[in-house]
Amino acid sequence: MGQNEKREDWAVLHAVGDIALARSEWRLCLAGVESYLRTADIGFFNCEVPYAETGCPGMLPHGAPGHHPRAMAALPAAGFNVCTFANNHTMDWGLDAIVECRTRLEAIGIAVCGAGKNIHEARKPAVVEKKGIKVAFLGYNSVGPLLEHTVRTWMQWCRISKRRKSRLI
Fold this sequence. Notes:
This protein is globular. The protein has helices at residues 34-37, 74-77, 94-107, 119-123, 147-161; strands at residues 13-19, 42-47, 82-84, 111-113, 126-130, 133-137. It contains five helices and six strands. The chain has one domain (13-161). The strands form two sheets. A four-stranded parallel beta sheet has the order 1-2-3-4. It is an alpha/beta fold.
């Protein structure tokens, strides 16, 4: 079967790693690969950072900077419709940012796994159905310190950062 030939009994999946739309001209971040990514029925990515206006830069300066939600428009435009949020930067901006980002992703048609408002939501698979084929995705993170240490550190940083302005890219 040729690269441009599509079969109706197959669903094409493109999966990529970390996506962080960090340029000020975020529309250009995926421009070089967008036409290829859009050839898939299912486009999967790792949401490396939360796209949110809420949250606290708890793990900065070692964590990822926050990203403005307006950049999220590039994700479905590039053909992405499912993602995991389970990674080493998930908690960098705290639970509020995770919940906001997940809500925003789902609102633009992107199924999410790997993080949520509680452990039950985080463990729920992201299910995508194309051409009568259902694919379920799970996302788990085993990178970083123990949870209690992470939460304690994040809370300490939040107390400190309330005195300074946070900046979204």
